[in-house]
Amino acid sequence: MNIESIKDCYGCGVCATVCPRDIIGISLNVLGFYEPVILDSSQCIDCGLCCEVCSYLHDELSLQKVEIQSCAAWSKEKAVRQKCSSGGVSFEVGRILINKGYKVCGVRYNTEINRAEHYIASTVEELIPSIGSKYIQSYTVDGFKAIDRKQKYLVTGTPCQIDSFRRYIRKFKKEENFILMDFFCHGVPSMLMWKKYIKEVKKTIGKITYLSWRNKVINCHDMKTMIIDNEKIDWHDSYNLLVKGEKGYYNSRLSQGDVFYRLFLSDTCLGKACYEKCKFKYDRSSADIRIGDLWGRMYKHNEDGVSAAVAFTQRGWELLHECNLEIVEHSFDVVAEGQMKEMPICDELYKRMKILLQRDDLDINQIYRQLLIALKYRKVMNRLKHPVRTMKNILKKIGK
């Protein structure tokens, strides 16, 4: 028994990590999402470990007994807060654990092959590349395989990656050596879309040497350290991409029409499992700590960035209070305001996008224009289906 028949799964890579014969690989499928591949089925010993640790094959969460405690949090260090996507909780958790002798398995962006990937950080300096959100699916295998279960680690990742990873360390009775952290996840977009986007960016700035999502400053003097400049932008408008290339910089924002964010947030190019098998929305997690942006009404006027921090274990809650963080306890509904409660809806636009992304003759801008046409058509059809409601809305606008 193995995962040979599994397709369109979470792509977490834990099956490849646990395989004692090292015959499972993780590669991109035709739709641009990671999934497992049996490299040599004749070498399989039918141990079943790959299926046992696979979150996709289980309906229940790996963490059953949870103690939800929640708060708003942000780093007490100004440079950390300004460098990080929201309040800097992930960095502060990583920093204190490294100082306690842990290592961190986090995610960085590899500009040589243009992918997000898990890696091991043993020092605070090595942790810095993991700062900030990564809005694409990460390749986990090299990072996960580098973990020595006898040592102590903080492991971060998407909720599905973390759920499988907890099954993995529980199987070997090593949960006490690990702190697990995930985040409020919207879903992962197709790497076909990301590659088309990067191809367009390269036309302007050449080979990419640095890339960062969700920046609070327009430029960084030294992108590999915590040194920042004072050219600050509104945190609530920080859905942006800062890319450094050999020929210059590229800085694009959602509010200015950035195509990557528009496609990602349209929910038309996410993984099939994000639509059909995600069991991790809102208050469902197998991590010790879940983080995210706290963009609800409570902090809508905050301009510096506030993290939502939710502990699902007492161990996670105690760790948050040990960090260099300002913590304000709130009920979960305050902390999670605005976060997705259910899976996104898979409709005809997804099916259309799936076809368009596989076409080599279309660039990212052409695909986005096709999406806009489809969205306008849908809007018109909805108005025609509901003429009374449409007329009421028109009269309201006239009345104003």
From TrEMBL:
Pfam family, one: FrhB_FdhB_C
Statement: the UniProt record of this protein carries the keyword Lipoprotein: no
Keyword Iron-sulfur: yes
PANTHER family: POLYFERREDOXIN PROTEIN FWDF (PTHR43193:SF2), PTHR43193
Organism, scientific name: Phocaeicola vulgatus (Bacteroides vulgatus)
GO terms, molecular function: iron-sulfur cluster binding; metal ion binding
SUPFAM superfamilies, alphabetized: 4Fe-4S ferredoxins (SSF54862)
Protein name per the record: 4Fe-4S ferredoxin
Keywords noted in UniProt: Iron, Iron-sulfur, Metal-binding
Domain 4Fe-4S ferredoxin-type stretches: 1-29, 34-66
InterPro entries on file: 4Fe4S_Fe-S-bd (IPR017896), 4Fe4S_Fe_S_CS (IPR017900), FrhB_FdhB_C (IPR007525), Polyferredoxin-like_ET (IPR052977)
